[in-house]
Every structure is written in C-alpha cells, then in structure tokens.
Amino acid sequence: MEPAFGEVNQLGGVFVNGRPLPNAIRLRIVELAQLGIRPCDISRQLRVSHGCVSKILARYNETGSILPGAIGGSKPRVTTPTVVKHIRTYKQRDPGIFAWEIRDRLLADGVCDKFNLPSVSSISRILRNKIGNLSQQSHYESSKQGPHPQPQPTLPYNHLYSYPTPIAATGTKVATPPGMPTLPGHMAMHRIWPSSHSVTDILGIRSITEQQSTVRPVKVCEGFCVYHDILMFISTPCVIYLFGTSLILITLYFQTPNGLLTVNSCVTAPSIPPYHHLTQVSPYMAYSGTTSAYVTGPTWLPPSGSALSPHSCDITAPLAFKSMAATRDSVHPVTASAL
DNA sequence: TGCGTTACGGTTGAC
DNA sequence: CTGTCAACCGTAACG
C-alpha cells in the first residue's frame, strides 16, 4: 500500500522513497521535454530531482515508454510448465530418479540449456511440491480401477522396494553402510523409490494419516543417528513420521539373501528428543513405545513368521494399522504399538 | 550551470 | 508464514 505521505526533496517536491513517481508526473516530464524545455527547468518546475528527470527521459528515448521498470520479483523462472512436464515424465519413467539426474537429462535432452537449467534444489522442490504425490496418485487411481489381486506371500517385496547395491553397477547411488548385506549381482534389483506401493501403504501409515491428523510424514533422510551412545546407520531412504509427539522412522533398504526385503522401523518416545534417539526394530514386528531395545543390523523373518526379533521391544498397547491390515495382512504381519 | 553517473536507503515480489 | 535475494525506485552528491 502506498504511504499517504512521502518525503520532501530539496526542491520541495514530494516523493515516496523506493516507489516510482506517479505516471502523471512522468508523462508531464516527457511532454515538457518534447516542448523543448530543458531538463533542468523541468526538474525545477515539477520539483523532481534532475537525476530522476534525466533517467526518465533517457528511458523514454530508449524504450518509448514512460513507465517504470518492473519492481521486485525474481529472475525469469526456469521451471516453466514445459520443464515441469518433462520432470514429471522422467519421474514417471523412473520414480527413483534423483534430482541431479533429472537435471542432467533436461540438459541432455535439450529441454534446457545451461542458462535456464533449474538447480537441483529447484528440481527437488518441484518433485516435492508438484510431483511429490505422483506415486500415491497413481496408486490411488489404480486402486479405483478395480479390485487388485492381493500380493502373494511368495512374491518378494524386492520387486517393489529394491535398491541398488554396490554390485548393481550402473545405478549405484547409495553406499552400502558397514554391516549391510551386499548382494550378488544377479540379485541386485532395479531400485524403485518411491514406489507406487509406498512404505505408507505397507505399514498402513496412510490410513492413520487420514484418520489422525497427528501423524504426518516429517522427513526423508539418511545417515547416522545416535542411540544410547551407539552410532547407527539409517539406511536410505527412510521416512520419518511424526506420530503425536513421537517419531516413527521407517526405512526400506535391506534385501536379505532369500529375497525378502527387510522393512525397518524405529520409534522415539515422546520424551526423547527426536532425531537423536532412534530405535531400529525388526521388520514385521511391533513398534515400541519404549526405547530400550534396538537392532543395529538387518534382521530376517520367515514369511510366515510372526513378528518379533531377538531384540524385540516391549510392546505397549497395540495399535492396528488399518489399511495395512485391510490390504496386506497376508504379506505384512506388521503391527504397531501406541506410543 | 547543466547533466550524466553513482552511492544510498528504500520497496517489491518471486522463490 | 517468513526470510532471502535481486530487481527497481528517487534522492543527493559528485565530477
């Protein structure tokens, strides 16, 4: 909003610092100049600084316009609809593609040149804000199309949640942390992440998010975390959910020699500072409200096994993850406990 | 004295 | 919602 009062310059004219002169004055400056009046006289007559008169006349002579330039805003956007469309296409073809790979492809495919190539952070933002729910959308859409055959227990998850191992030469994007199993090359699966069958589907988090506003994805991350002075690697990628005041960390990374993917999860108790107290527990087992137990490596569970690892946590009040139970009971005997 | 240029403090709007 | 950043503004001073 324009201030009602401006400042007064040395000539007694009123101006608003940082704002253009009114168009009427700008027009008057040009008109007087065209009448042959000298700029210094225009300056005195209209009580506008001579520098301003000079600038406006110079611009008028150059562009033919009396209007001020565009104030504010950023440089021309590089994330044009066309670029976004291509990014979406890349993401659809390879849901696990990285932002920097998309950037390379935009350049290689001639969609962008080096002058209007979006930054990796811009691409990440597009993926997050505009395409982030692509996989879930496709999942929902496919769900609407008709009854889906239930995944068979004999069907390993790795076709859905597989990641490259260091031996999977071409697409190795994650270093294998110490202690993680390295698969033979023939077992290395093409990584699909995020999958249309996301971790939220498997563990039923989505249904909870739909039912409880307190559950929401917080962060996708990787790296190390400290638990009770023990340094642990959080495998890549993982999804952290905020459940009430507690934190649930879910990772999908491991692939056991028998082809089963280990779904790891961990929970922080409300009283524990998040991000510094992460409990990794076994796949197919309960979350725990306690923070006393942890598993530092992948665990294996027979497909028909029920769900506890040797390092299982104390199970507090069980909480059914409804959608998981509805859709994947036969495959994912995962339960969770309330925190 | 006239005028082009520049430093300065300010506003704006996309990101 | 807020901070950052780079565009622009007009004034004042300099040469």
Automatic annotation (TrEMBL):
Keywords: Developmental protein, DNA-binding, Membrane, Nucleus, Paired box, Transcription, Transcription regulation, Transmembrane, Transmembrane helix. Residues 136-145 have a biased composition (Polar residues). Residues 4-130 form the Paired domain. It is found in: Nucleus. The keyword Phosphoprotein does not apply. GO terms for biological process: anterior/posterior pattern specification; camera-type eye morphogenesis; hindbrain development. Residues 136-155 are annotated as: Disordered. PROSITE patterns: PAIRED_1, PAIRED_2. The chain crosses the membrane at residues 230-254. One of its GO terms (molecular function) is DNA-binding transcription factor activity, RNA polymerase II-specific. The keyword Nucleus applies. SMART domains: PAX. Gene3D superfamilies: Winged helix-like DNA-binding domain superfamily/Winged helix DNA-binding domain (1.10.10.10). This is Paired box protein Pax-9. It comes from Triplophysa tibetana.
